[in-house]
Write a structure and sequence with these properties.
17 helices; globular; 374 residues; five-stranded parallel sheet; alpha/beta; 3 domains; Rossmann fold; 5 strands; 7% strand
Length: 374
């Protein structure tokens, strides 16, 4: 993974390269932001740059032995820790490393939910268990094998099991020689304040539209109009844009489903909503998350239309419905629906029962509509 493979984020790339060239490499760093903004790909590109034998002022060479090994995620000085559904108390992340490498090669912008589906799909919530945390500390007590530095890339540190974060904190406070910890977090607020205070944090904003369009054009080979539709829907989230894939196929499912769902909630037609919930339950968790993200996108566009009378970020398929919908709800109702969708998104991502969560969100949306009729 090179910097050129990461969508946008030029300021962060410049910051990381400059610190490397100056030899000022913090021993504990936090890359914080949505996974779709490029936190994990950037961490991998940064590590490859630091392990590259012939780096340029802009990027790693991509051709040396170090780059090739990092590119396959198999460099002996690159260690991983990540959440997984442990089979028992002795199971460690290392046992799932081949699957994790395959996942990274397929989708470096992927979420912990898509990784969980890729790895096991079990109902058990993935976590970084105590056995893995102990293995981390053992691995990092060793000297680098080939380079001057060794790296521990800790993905989703907020999912470390209770009690183990203190042991990690101690290791970061007193780091082994030539060791760099890079934590990649989506919810840094869930990390211990004492741990956060020991980390140099880089916050990742969403990818701007121009850079996202360039990335999609280079990696998906889509026509300009198709790229525009994906960019409009994704709101700076590379993973969401990629997950939509063929946008027309996704819209063929998501748009009528969302339209019928809103109508059923508005009319209190709960028998229809239960039928929709049964369909929703059959989707994979990643598709369910994408659907809630799509719903948030539509409601945001309805709010934009109410304030600016413009619907520039939508497709023609959605335009006529959104114009009617935005005329029937006020801003308070739209914001209340968005909060219900956000709660549903978090519930599904948190391994809630899909049908129950969908029905609960339906009830909240019905209450939101009632709010507007009072």
């Amino acid at each position: 993974m090179q910097f050129q493979d990461v969508a946008g984020q030029s300021q962060i790339k410049h910051l990381l390269v400059r610190s490397a060239q100056q030899g000022r490499i913090p021993h504990a760093q936090l890359f914080s932001g949505k996974h779709g903004h490029g936190t994990l790909p950037m961490a991998l590109a940064y590590i490859q740059y630091l392990l590259c034998e012939q780096p340029s002022p802009q990027d790693s060479c991509g051709a040396c032995a170090g780059c090739k090994k990092v590119g396959k995620f198999s460099h002996p000085d690159l260690h991983f820790a990540f959440p997984f559904a442990a089979k028992d108390d002795k199971d460690v992340a290392q046992n799932h490393l081949e699957d994790f490498r395959a996942f990274l090669l397929k989708t470096p912008y992927g979420s912990v939910e898509s990784w969980h589906e890729f790895n096991s799909g079990e109902s058990k919530r993935p976590a970084i268990n105590s056995a893995t945390t102990k293995a981390i500390l053992t691995e990092m007590s060793q000297k680098p094998y080939e380079g001057k530095l060794q790296f521990m890339l800790l993905w989703y540190p907020e999912l470390i099991t209770h009690g183990m974060a203190n042991r990690l904190l101690k290791s970061i406070e007193e780091p082994p020689p030539s060791t760099v910890f890079i934590l990649v977090s989506e919810e840094e607020g869930k990390l211990m304040p004492t741990l956060l205070s020991r980390l140099q944090t880089i916050a990742f904003p969403k990818v701007n539209d121009f850079d996202l369009a360039a990335y999609l054009g280079n990696n998906m080979g889509l026509e300009l109009e198709r790229v525009r539709e994906l960019v409009n829907m994704a709101d700076g989230d590379v993973d969401y844009a990629l997950s939509l894939g063929n946008v027309q196929e996704q819209l063929a499912v998501f748009f009528p489903f969302f339209r019928d769902w809103m109508r059923g909630a508005y009319m209190a037609a709960f028998h229809e909503s239960i039928e929709l919930a049964e369909v929703f339950q059959k989707w994979g968790r990643t598709q369910q998350i994408s659907f809630f993200q799509y719903g948030l996108y539509l409601i945001r566009e309805a709010l934009v239309f109410k304030t600016s009378n413009s619907l520039s970020r939508i497709t023609e398929l959605e335009r006529s419905w959104l114009e009617r919908f935005s005329g029937s709800v006020n801003a308070a109702v739209a914001e209340s629906i968005m909060q219900a969708l956000e709660n549903g998104l978090q519930g599904i991502a948190g391994n809630a029962h899909q049908k129950t969560e969908f029905i609960g969100v339906t009830i909240d949306i019905y209450r939101s509509f009632k709010l507007g009729n009072q």
